[in-house]
């Protein structure tokens, strides 16, 4: 009981620190906006480069979309103030993620099993996976600009977990007492972590692309982000990792179903939606790899896949219409 209480205390502490990190990331973005004078100069350079491509080719060529004049790389220099604020926000995220991981581990020790046997535990474990994955990737890739779009969903999930999904630490139902719980579910929430980060990058890609096509009169932090093409490649890479992990989740779930229920497939709502998610992301991968398909359209498919992930976790679990064989676990 002491471990369970400590797990809850660490969870509340992580939420407090994540809130501070969210505010710090917002503070950081406020310092990233390029100056208007710099943006005009950079925009002029971009226009010149485009003209050289069109005139110097010697043959009619489809106009290349201009690269962003404010990309966080060539053409954009982050101010010292912005870097300092980003570092503070990132350090807070490290601390909050460590507290959340500690909460999940203590919950597992308290119940003597993998701590993802019900919706509350899955939600907190998935949030911890998102925080940990972002923390590992952010420093190396200088993703401080992404922080507020990751930390905010984590806070929302933790708030939902505590207010709606909370379950006291306890034993598992007999059917869940299998080593597959530690394998199947853990891979599932790691896949969800990559899908979540990819969805955030994908949404920023769509916004960034629109701003490149119709540059604003006054730049904001959006113009300090990496170019739309860079954001799209990043989202694709993250979705690819998530898709591979989700494929394993689907296969592992079928094997566990055979052991628990005597058949690989039972048309259970959870099974069906797991396959729906896999199908949508497979369509995205196919679209992304097909020559001539607009990457923007492919990204819409990926975002539809993430909406399916949200439906799978919320409606399928909470609405009585979807009652199935997974409901005894609260998942």
Structural description of this entry:
It comes from Terrabacter aeriphilus. It is a multi-pass membrane protein. This is C-type cytochrome biogenesis protein CcsB. It is found in: Membrane. The structure is a single chain. The protein is 71% helix and 0% strand. It is flat. It is built from 10 helices and no strands. With 331 residues, it is mostly helical. It starts with a helix and ends in a 13-residue tail after the last helix. The relative contact order is 0.11. It has one domain (2-34, 70-329).
Task: Detail the topology: elements first, then pairings.
Blueprint: H1 2-30, H2 36-56, H3 80-111, H4 119-141, H5 147-163, H6 179-213, H7 228-261, H8 269-289, H9 295-313, H10 315-318
Helix pairs in contact: 1-3, 1-5, 3-4, 4-5, 4-6, 6-7, 6-9, 7-8, 8-9
Membrane topology: Multi-pass membrane protein
Transmembrane segments: 12-30, 88-110, 116-138, 145-167, 179-207, 236-257, 272-291, 303-325
Keywords: Cytochrome c-type biogenesis, Membrane, Transmembrane, Transmembrane helix
